[in-house]
Write a structure and sequence with these properties.
By secondary structure, the protein is an alpha/beta fold. The chain has 23 helices and 18 strands.
């Protein structure tokens, strides 16, 4: 990762940039026809509950086919039901002649059992025929059925969970599920797990949800065996794509006037225009599409066969533009969709050049040639952003670069609704920071001097006892980093969280609006420890209330280390680039940044806790935003400063007690050390809250007396 200038688009500020090694490993098949991720998932095929976390384009659909066929043929299950969020994704589970590539059986779904192809929308009245089809399937000797989440929900409501005993239920795009009682599919899955008579395979490219709800209840999640295949492994193992840039560009005025600055006609692009109810929208989606096309060149008509617009650029090329926004002519819209899905054109790079969409062309949309995903306005769901970025990260012959640009309205100094603009800005930055964490290799942290780990390379001099070591495993894309004073998890569940779920913890941290506001725009009045210890600590406690305090603290330390080391590595690389010493070593770039940071001095957890996790993001913002606007945003955030809340005071008092145990004295409110002073203020605030509560109780008792 680095902060290099986008070579074809100087207006975009890349906040994330990853360069890959292009090993080809993620696309190589074994003797059974399985790619790396599929082989990893298949090795766990005997588990009753499987959770596959793997990025878009990594082959989750086919992995499920391999696992399902083994369960049907070797594990005694009667049938497999594949459940997808929307009908368009059902095509991912069409017939596949897997035996041609070395597997034991072929994947086949009889036409009447692919309910995603059946007419009619998925709502209760219209879906009755589909529910009847599910009932007939359950009574039939056939083995595979594909339906939508909605159809499956209605079928379970009507027939009960017992009707599905001894079957495999596979949930694609699992992040649509939630443990919230109002989420019906989540409740049904909880009932299936409690009955324990089915096998479940859950698959997702982004396990976190955009609304910060938990996907599964902790007790249910503990039943699942997790297979994780990271974005880093996926991209690093490609044959063609060697770099991915993710950044944002601020604009003032109308977004259609700014599009020309970031929309490069030479790049295969998907443009997602803003929702009609959003602040960025011009309230006329057809006009917005027309103006975007005008920015590309001169309109020359519509291809009658495909329905694509033909636009002649200034250099004489004719672009083919697919408009998925205009729904005024259903016949033409269907023609455009059919042309985009035409399997005969899948490998034709010149079939289409630009796709303009509103609610479509996101999750499950497969256009391997896409080089640029351009999104106008923030997206409220981080999951949606990950899915949109996934449209551009397919590997395709000759495609070496990909990028995602978020076009964001800059909070204008004279703008009355500056709070709304700041909200949008924070969400866009949150998504960018999350993608940095998703794209980074996975960390494996241990305390100092625990010894080398097998499979890790520690540099030409090897592992050095007494020093802070950093090792890399090229095969798994993991970094082993030693941290002095690091707390280690004491239970299997806490160990699993530290290995598998740190991104989910960081996601919760990044979705906390107050954390982002203080960390980015009120750094003068916000101590890093308030973010790293208090707020991250609170998030871990709320997320894992069943764990003891020692395990919660270990998870907190691991999560903040994962975030801060990535951010500091990025800053180190940016500094090296600014000094003319940028690396050209492909996938070693982030490792170089980690080593630069570690080598400043021995890495210890106290040092990590004293770093504001948003330093690197602020450095990018300061370059990208107008200084006057930046100052206004900072002023609006600082004006909201409040006294220490009671829960924060309680946590500060706990930290003060730890301080006393280590130093033999309580923190001094007059200390020159800002964090010691803050802990002392917390102790005093908690004493006030307790005195107030005691006084209120005494007053209540005297009133009753």
């Amino acid at each position: 990762m680095n902060a290099t200038t986008n070579p074809t688009n100087a207006c975009t500020v890349p906040s994330v940039s990853i360069t890959t090694a292009r090993t080809g490993a993620s696309s190589k098949a074994n003797v059974l026809g399985m790619r790396a991720m599929q082989e990893r998932a298949y090795a766990k095929r005997g588990e009753q509950y499987l959770l596959i976390k793997s990025p878009p384009a990594s082959g989750k659909s086919r992995a499920l086919m391999f696992i399902a066929l083994d369960k049907l043929n070797n594990q005694g299950l009667r049938q497999a039901i594949i459940v997808v969020p929307e009908r368009s994704i059902g095509g991912s589970f069409a017939d596949e002649p897997l035996s041609q590539y070395g597997f034991y059986w072929d994947w086949q779904v009889a036409p009447q059992w692919n309910l995603c192809n059946a007419p009619g929308v998925d709502e209760p009245r219209a879906a009755k025929s589909k529910v009847d089809a599910v009932r007939k399937f359950l009574a039939s000797p056939d083995q595979t059925l594909v339906c939508t989440h909605a159809t499956f929900r209605f079928a379970v409501e009507e027939m009960g969970i017992e009707a599905f005993d001894n079957r495999l239920i596979a949930i694609d795009e699992f992040h649509h599920v939630s443990s919230n009682p109002d989420n019906k599919l989540g409740g049904q899955l909880g009932a299936f797990i409690a009955r324990d008579k089915v096998h479940l395979v859950a698959m997702t490219g982004s396990y976190f949800r955009g609304d910060s709800e938990a996907v599964l209840a902790p007790a249910d999640e503990a039943r699942f065996e997790t297979i994780t295949y990271t974005y880093y492994e996926q991209l690093n193992g490609y044959s063609w794509l060697k770099s991915l840039d993710i950044g944002y560009f601020f604009y003032t005025g109308r977004y259609v006037d700014a599009v020309a600055k970031v929309l490069d006609p030479a790049l295969k692009t998907i443009v997602h225009i803003p929702n009609v109810n959003s602040r960025e929208s011009l309230q006329d989606k057809e006009r917005e599409v027309n103006e975007i096309m005008q920015a590309l060149g001169e309109w020359k008509g519509i291809d009658p066969a495909t329905g694509f617009h033909q636009i002649q650029t200034k250099d004489g090329r004719t672009l083919k533009v697919a408009d998925l926004v205009d729904d005024s002519d259903p016949a033409r819209r269907s023609r455009v969709l059919a042309a985009l899905k035409d399997p005969a054109q899948k490998s034709n790079r010149d079939h289409v050049d630009v796709i303009i969409a509103l609610g479509m062309a996101k999750e499950g949309f497969d256009w391997i040639w896409c080089e640029h995903a351009l999104t106008i306005g923030y997206r409220s769901s981080l999951t949606e952003i990950v899915q949109i970025i996934g449209r551009a990260t397919r590997d395709a012959e000759g495609k070496e670069r990909a990028r995602f640009t978020n076009l964001i309205a800059e909070p204008a100094a004279e703008q009355a609704a500056v709070a709304e603009a700041v909200n949008d800005l924070l969400k866009a930055i949150s998504a960018s920071l999350l993608m940095e964490q998703v794209l980074a290799p996975r960390y494996e942290f241990t305390p100092k001097d625990m010894g080398p780990k097998e499979g890790f390379y520690y540099g030409p001099d090897g592992y050095q006892p007494g020093r802070t070591n950093v090792g890399v495993n090229d095969g798994t894309g993991q970094y082993h980093v030693e941290i002095n004073g690091l707390a280690t998890p004491g239970t299997p569940e806490a160990t699993r969280i530290c290995k598998e779920d740190l991104n989910e913890v960081v996601t919760s941290f990044l979705q906390d609006k107050m954390v982002l506001e203080r960390g980015l725009f009120d750094q003068e009045n916000t101590l890093p420890e308030e973010l790293t210890q208090l707020h991250m600590g609170k998030i871990v406690r709320e997320r894992y209330p069943e764990l003891n305090e020692a395990d919660q603290e270990a998870i907190r330390q691991h999560a903040i280390a994962a975030m801060n080391i990535t951010q500091q590595a990025k800053l180190a690389l940016a500094q090296a680039d600014a000094n003319g010493g940028g690396t050209e070593q492909g996938s070693t770039a982030l490792l170089d940044g980690v080593r630069k940071f570690v080598n400043v001095r021995d890495l210890d957890i106290d040092l990590i806790d004293r770093i504001n996790p948003f330093d690197a993001a602020y450095a990018v913002l300061a370059k990208a935003m107008d200084e006057k606007s930046l100052r206004q945003v900072q002023a609006s955030i600082a004006a909201k400063k409040v006294s220490i809340p009671e829960d924060e005071a309680r946590e500060l008092a706990k930290r003060a007690l730890l301080f006393k145990n280590e130093r033999g004295r309580l923190p001094d409110i007059h200390s020159a050390d800002a964090w010691e002073k803050r802990m002392a203020e917390g102790v005093a605030a908690l004493a006030r809250y307790r005195a107030q509560a005691k006084a209120a109780q005494a007053q209540g008792e005297s009133s009753n007396g």
